[in-house]
Amino acid sequence: MKKTNLNLIPDTINLSPDYYCTWQTQLYATSNGRPPKQRWIIGEKAMFSEEKPFGWAYFHEKARGDLLFIMDDSWDVPLDGNTDYYGSLILNEEKYPTYTEGKTNAEALKMLTEKMKSLGWKGLGGWVCAQESEFCKVSPEEYWKERMREADESGFAYWKVDWGKKDGDAEFRKMLTDLAREYAPDLIIEQSFTKDVIPYADVFRTYDVPAIMSIPMTMEKLANYTDVPAPVGKNKGLIDCEDEAYIAAAGGFAMGIMRHPYVGDLPNGSADPSFPAIHRNLKTKMYEVIRAARFHRIAPAFAAVGENTRVSPEKLSDTWQFVNIEDEIEGWWLVSMSSIKNFIDENKLLTKTAPAVIARNTSLPEIKPSKDGHVPYCMASKNPNGVFGIVTLGRTIGRDYFIPKCEVSADIGDSKIIGVFGEYESLILKTAHEKIGRVLMQDLADETAYDITELVKTEGGRMIIPGSVISEIGRSAQPEDDTSEPGVIIKID
Description:
Elements: E1 2-3, E2 19-21, H1 23-29, H2 34-41, H3 44-48, E3 68-71, H4 97-100, H5 105-118, E4 123-128, H6 140-154, E5 158-161, H7 170-183, E6 188-191, E7 203-205, H8 214-222, E8 238-240, H9 245-251, E9 256-257, H10 287-298, E10 309-311, E11 315-321, H11 325-328, H12 338-341, E12 349-355, E13 357-360, E14 366-368, E15 377-382, E16 388-393, E17 395-397, E18 400-402, E19 407-413, E20 417-421, E21 426-431, E22 439-443, E23 450-451, E24 457-459, E25 462-466, H13 467-474, E26 487-492
Parallel strand pairs: 2-3, 2-9, 3-4, 4-5, 5-6, 6-7, 7-8, 13-15, 16-20, 19-21
Antiparallel strand pairs: 1-23, 10-13, 11-12, 14-19, 15-16, 17-18, 20-26, 21-25, 22-23, 22-26, 24-25
Helix pairs in contact: 1-2, 5-6, 6-7, 9-10
């Protein structure tokens, strides 16, 4: 293995609408103050004061240029929480006095957008309640036209359209996308709730999952999109799989990052239920965000077309044995989120089941069980530009999280660039190339590639890469206190 002077990652803009969203940081800053306090805390102090638990605008330094910054719930609602303002999209003057004083809303949003770009973010966006404000005195169409004109004038980049009085109204959501094409062509509209709107959306979010079951629940959701038709017109039809960064990278999806760097307990000393320090401890896996975002420079998220998605008949069941349930999962999952509550038995054992493997624009990878009989979840895709991606994803059994190291085989066809994420005993790449010359591998968070040709075995149209090489190089750029799983880019000459 020899270090080269080559960098396989282009110095270009990540064209995928990836973002960091503040909602879970709002929970952290309020010591799990629940939605009322989370909504109260968002504002310029939270974003720009550098004293912990604030300073959110300074997060994700190495990934910032590839991410949008999304202000979540209540950036447009006053401090008293007056719900009449939901859907107003007017930067609240109490929360953002520096940016609103003496300015129109478009001017205020533009000033804040320029501030975020000056800090290195790709752009600024915000959470949008799926309804018109109670102050609406015009037709819904005219109401949203005006807000889109303001977004266009200010350069406001993204609307995360969430719950509200019209959250399940596909026609309302289609109207938003259609109006944006005309009045704010650069504005990205994210939809959710009803998958019928996917062909008419820029982005469709798979929606919330708790950290301890994020992998199987995300895989379960993604497997439900095999009947989605191709995007209509100029709509992008992308899927956003939230904080599962490596699924987004390998699967060709957009990502909405929630994790943040404030590791450990909440400010009041209690456990952080949104990112438990037990299990995956996602707040210590920040380099996964860097790697996924950089891979999207090479292989951007691409449209959901159900007929090009393959789902394995084999399913895997993950379990989590709760001990201190309030410390290990956010409270609303136990009250209003039936997708979790209904899967916890009388012994506090949570069980979720999902397809073992999903593939987009390619065949399903084949996986041999590990020595102890386990297999990982796996996602693979072939990007329309020819780049191949694959990831092995961890299992949750009892109170343990681990990635089974297995022999994984994938047919990459004529791909010469491959993104590989996760852990392997060995990775076998079946290739259409008759002759393999040099093979380069680089940590996606690094700047320099290694020549691994001598470590790769080639036979009968197959390349066999030791999993130990992927693990060593794929973690080489991260500091010791970061526990991110490996992520590399491979180039075949």
